[in-house]
Amino acid sequence: MTELMLALDVLTRAEAMDIAEKTYPYIDAIKIGYPLVLGSGLSVARDLAEFDLPLIADFKVADIPNTNRLIAEHVFEAGFSGIITQGFTGRDSVSACVDVAHNAGGKCYVVTEMSHPGALDFMGEGVAERLAELAVECNADGIIAPATRPERVKALRQIIGSKKILSPGVGAQGGSAEEIAPLIDSMIVGRSIYNSEDPAKAAQSYSCVRDL
Amino acid sequence: MTELMLALDVLTRAEAMDIAEKTYPYIDAIKIGYPLVLGSGLSVARDLAEFDLPLIADFKVADIPNTNRLIAEHVFEAGFSGIITQGFTGRDSVSACVDVAHNAGGKCYVVTEMSHPGALDFMGEGVAERLAELAVECNADGIIAPATRPERVKALRQIIGSKKILSPGVGAQGGSAEEIAPLIDSMIVGRSIYNSEDPAKAAQSYSCVRDL
Fold first, then answer.
1. What is the CATH number of the domain that holds A139?
2. Among candidates A10, A101, A98, which has minimal Cα distance to A48?
3. Are A109 and A143 contacting, i.e. CB atoms less than 8 angstroms apart?
4. What is the pTM for the complete model shown?
5. Rounded distance between C-alpha atoms, residue A159 and residue A58, angstroms
6. Could you give the number of structural domains in chain A?
7. Which of A99, A126, A119, A108 is nearest to A173 (CA)?
8. Nearest CA in chain A to B9
9. I need a labelling partner for B99 at 20 to 30 A (CA). Which of A161, B51, B79, B82 fits?
């Protein structure tokens, strides 16, 4: 079964809590990023943790090992259950995040490809494969790969085996839920749910796709 | 003249204010990162802005263009005067940070190389040159390149011309201040100052090197 992860990319704590309250019965996990955390403070994690779903810090951590470690420690102390790190800063930086995550009983996922046009400048074919290999070598729990490029997801699956694939890009960015669902473990959907007039119904509509 | 930028990588607002208070007459700029901001809140920027020095958010921003834009908006609204972004996420992501910075009257710097061992996995020779070219094309104000590898700094200078080079890695990481100072615009020093028994004196010792 493919899980549904809500990318809660709203700008205020009030909006985040409102959308989470409306959608939590129909989603499997929540992911938030720096814009919400910078505006609300890291304590927004404690509020969202009340919905008792995995809560992922999509911070795309991209610093030296010691700074990555300090960032990850803040994340897990704040109540998150997982963290997303960039991989291009190399093995020691990724390992720092993985180690903190696992010591906290949490998960760490490595970005291999992204779904915006500029991602092809440095992170396209070849590099993404090496990043997926790095994720395996560092004992990460999975990778992030774009739903907008299913053929790439298939190529990366060959490398990571049974580790998780989390895929953004469904909905507003044009990725097809039906096409990508069978290839991945978690479908990340944001705007199509939180910008919907009826977020609960929108989330439910993806729940059906999950069982494809 | 090479400027001295203090990397204020302490963990609490109290420590940050204490070190800044002791060293501000001897430094030209302050740089802080996510560990301090996640622990103290973004409002620590307003406190540090009181020292009337350029204040740089070393967030190594590494997301899609829209998220980069939102992060940069938070940064400049909080009182920072500059932001550091990764370049690896490509042209549109870098441009998003540069645009917000320049609209706010601030600066944006692009990481081309880093000084930890893992940086060589994906960001070594060749890639760093392309990242420096990207910084120029995106009209960024400068780049970050490691003081631990002066020969690389020289190679990157050929690409960026008169744009600024900010260099970490002096002091605790082994880079030689005397060797790197003539090659760069801003020397980033952290632990050698804030972990010193006499931070003011330590900062002053680098002030001498600035005039090399």
1. 3.20.20.70
2. A10
3. yes
4. 0.96
5. 23
6. 1
7. A119
8. A67
9. B51
The residues in B 157-196 lying below 8 A from A, measured between CB atoms, are none
Cα–Cα distances (Å) from B12 to A36, A204, B2, B7, B19, in that order, read: 21, 43, 29, 14, 11
Q: Is A113 on the interface with B (CB under 8 A)?
A: no
How many whole angstroms separate alpha carbon B160 and alpha carbon B157?
5
Q: Which residues contact B184 (CB under 8 A, 6 or more apart)?
A: B2, B145, B147, B153, B165, B166, B167
Within chain B, strands assigned E span: 3-7, 29-33, 55-61, 82-86, 107-111, 142-144, 164-167, 186-189
Q: Is the dihedral of CA A59, A65, A69, A71 positive or negative?
A: negative
Q: What residues contact residue A14 under an 8 Å CB cut-off, 6+ apart?
A: none
Q: Quick check: A212 pLDDT over 60?
A: no
Question: Hey, what are B104's tokens?
Answer: 């706010």
**pLDDT tens digits for B156-200?**
999 999 999 999 977 766 778 888 899 999 999 999 999 999 999
The domain in which residue A134 lies consists of 3-208
State the complex-level ipTM.
Answer: 0.96
| Cα angle B25, B27, B30; round to 5 | 120
B64 touches chain A (CB under 8 A): yes
Closest CA to B102 of B76, B137, B135: B76
Q: Is B65 on the interface with A (CB under 8 A)?
A: yes
For residue B52, indicate whether it is catalytic: no
